Every structure is written in C-alpha cells, then in structure tokens.
C-alpha cells in the first residue's frame, strides 16, 4: 500500500512538473510574441512619425517655392518629387488584379498663397528737456519709490552686488544702488537683508 501511494504521488508530481514546464514554455513564447509585437508597433509608429514629418516638410517646401517662384515652379517641384521616387511607379506597376490597371502621373493640389507686403515706418523722436539733469532726477525719484534699500546693510548690499555681477571696487553705496537698479527686485533686496 505504501508503494502504491508513493508511486501515485511520484507520478502526480512528475505530471505536475511537466505541466509547469509546458506552461512556462507557453509563457516564454507569449512573452517573445509580445516583445515582437511591441517592436513592430514601435517601428510602425516611428515610420508614421517620419512620414508625417516628411509630408509637413514637403508642404512647407511647396509654400516656399510658391512664394519665391510662383505656381509654375510648384508644378515643376511636384513633378520632380514624383520623378525622384521610382518606387511609386514600381509599386503602381506591380499591382495585378482582374481589373484593368491604369498607371497615372500623380497630381498634387496646392493652395493659392497670397503674400502681402506692407511697409512699416518706425518713428523715433528725441525728447529734449531744458534741464539735462531733470530726466535723471525724475528717474531716480521713481526708482527710489520702487526699491527700498534702507533694510539692507552695507556689507549685504556689497554681497548682493557681487552676486549680480556688479563691481564694487571703489564705489560708494549710492553708486552700487544705481548699478543694481535694473538688476534686482525688491524681493531680492529683502532676501539679502
């Protein structure tokens, strides 16, 4: 009886191992097929993207040719595109069906492009004040209202100037403030303080 039980158990274990091996082989085959399908899908996506890019480039080239040389040049450009691709003619010629095959020259419809040229005139005026220092004073008053340097110490002002690339060698506090005017914001000053 023990021998029968052992024999049956051994047989069951062996058949289970065979089943597991078979399932692992099927799983490996399925993984390989999945990898192949993913590679094929990626290759198709790459080809589709390349084709879309090429089509966009041809459309842009047609527009540029039309702008530069006119519609006659666009027709010549289209003919050159078809002539440069013998695969198109070969693909058309290889098609065999019960119906009559007619190979025709590819035609491309283009949009009419209108280019408008408008002249632009830039007017530059110099504003002259009677007092040459008046403009600077007004500017300084406005800037002093915008930026408050009172919270920052002399050494921290120097550090801020150095971080902004302003030379501090031999400059007064006011000169450094003027040099920083276009380079810092009030938030920069508050953070440095």
UniProtKB/TrEMBL annotation:
Keywords: Coiled coil. It comes from the Bacteria. Residues 13-47 form a coiled coil. This is Uncharacterized protein. It comes from Amazonocrinis nigriterrae CENA67.
